Amino acid sequence: MKAAVLYEPNQPVIVEDIEMDPPKEGEILVRMVATGVCHSCYHVVTGLLTPPLPTVLGDEGAGVVEEVGKGVTLVKPGDHIILSWMESCGHCIYCVQGRSNLCLTGSEKEEGFLPDGTTRFKKNGKPIHHFATVASFAEYSVIPETCAVPIDRDVPLDKAALIGCSVTTGVCAATNTAQVRPGSSVAVFGAGGIGLNVIQGAVIAGAEKIIAVDLLESKLEFARQFGATHTVNADEVDAIEEIRALTDGLGVEYAIEAIGTRTTYEQVLYALRNGGTAVWVGAPPREPLSLDPGVVFWGEKTVKGCCYGSSRSRYDMPRLLALYRASVLKLDELITQTYRLEDVNTAFNDMLDGKVARGMILL
Ligand SMILES: [Zn+2]
Ligand SMILES: [Zn+2]
Fold first, then answer.
1. Nearest ligand, CA of residue 90?
2. What single-letter DSSP state applies at residue 343?
3. Looking at domain 170-306, what is its CATH homologous superfamily?
4. Cα–Cα distance between 177 and 181 in angstroms, integer?
5. How far is the CA of 277 from the centre of ligand 2 (A)?
């Protein structure tokens, strides 16, 4: 079966035939139907994220259950699922608390392997790893049952795939992590796949003012389509000054970072009014910040980390599909370009050039 494999950082991703073992106990074989092109995978290509290599990439997918291993009770062959890259074991302290995005089973598992510490993918007898556990850049993947989120069959799987990462992370960053209140003001730094969904989340939460900040005009145009009321091109003006000018000099009540640079991780705190909440959604930069702690102290500001939008996959993912059915959440408009698996490197380049809201690989 065909898969997109990264052997070394800063090299093209290779699409090739690899071998795969059948699912073991508690595992599911999935026939992948669609998989979104996410910046997290590109972070592996550039070496910002360092999971074990070689690896099958792909962290945003949906498909059909083909076969189940011993003991699987959640799904059966033929069921449609979204793949969640964080396991939800259902019985650890975080799962029972309703914070399954912090599931202990999932977060303590060694990256690149299935829960039993081995891989199902291999080539010439050598193991190939499973990026983000779900490894969706492949015609088939084996995942733990705890990563499957069953969904109704009436939702097209390419739309459902979006829920696997960008939509859940972005929308729930606004609704769950920041808990944006109706009538409030929100600044969103970065209008890529995640940022556009943070904007949608702020719309759904009833924010009055949604200010999108980016360096590319093409992305700011997407931001307006998804509900930004104001846009700021940080290449041309000082983003913080502009945000203050738009909010009576006070700053916004919520500032959400969806890029992952040191500058923007710091900027969100300066964009906030006193008492406001900043959320870090972009992958953390690998260098320390140089913040004046007084900004947080005197202004009683809150900073929140945001992993997978503080989502509870088996609750929030079907809820997001319900919002799509109710025409409240835009999914069709997100997929502005589709690709074959062979075109994965082109898909990454289009994402970097700001040509797409979200690229989707159809298998
Ligand atoms: Zn992702
Ligand atoms: Zn758990």
1. 2
2. G
3. NAD(P)-binding Rossmann-like Domain (3.40.50.720)
4. 12
5. 27
Which of 333, 317, 308 is closest to 170 using CA atoms?
A: 308
Instruction: Give the global pTM.
Output: 0.96
Longest dimension (CA), the chain: 64
Topology agreement, domain 2-164+330-362 and domain 170-306? no
Q: Which two tokens stand for residue 60?
A: 């945003």
Altogether, the residues listed in the chain come to a count of 363
d(CA 212, CA 210): 6
Expressed in angstroms and rounded, the spacing between residue 104 Cα and the centre of ligand 2 is 5
How many Cβ atoms are within 10 Å of 261's Cβ, its own excluded? 16
Q: Does domain 2-164+330-362 have CATH number 2.30.29.50?
A: no
Compute the distance from residue 134 Cα to the ligand 1 centre, in Å: 11
H or E segment to which residue 339 belongs: strand 335-339
Domain residue limits, the chain: 2-164+330-362, 170-306
Which ligand neighbours the alpha carbon of 101 most closely? Answer: 2
Which single residue is written with the structure tokens 């997929």? Answer: 335
CA distance 173 to 198: 6
Dist. CA 15–CA 140, nearest whole Å: 13
Nearest alpha carbon to residue 168 among 51, 40, 275: 40
Q: Provide the residue-wise pLDDT of the chain in tens; the chain has 363 residues.
A: 999 999 999 999 999 999 999 999 999 999 999 999 999 999 999 998 999 999 999 999 999 999 999 999 999 999 999 999 999 999 999 999 999 999 999 999 999 999 999 999 999 999 999 999 999 999 999 999 999 999 999 999 999 999 999 999 999 999 999 999 999 999 999 999 999 999 999 999 999 999 999 999 999 999 999 999 999 999 999 999 999 999 999 999 999 999 999 999 999 999 999 999 999 999 999 899 998 999 999 999 999 999 999 999 999 999 999 999 999 999 999 999 999 999 999 999 999 998 999 999 999
Dist. CA 283–CA 307, nearest whole Å:
9
**Cα dihedral sign for 221, 318, 305, 285?**
negative
Give residue 133 CA to ligand 2 midpoint distance, Å. Answer: 15
Amino acid at residue number 330: K
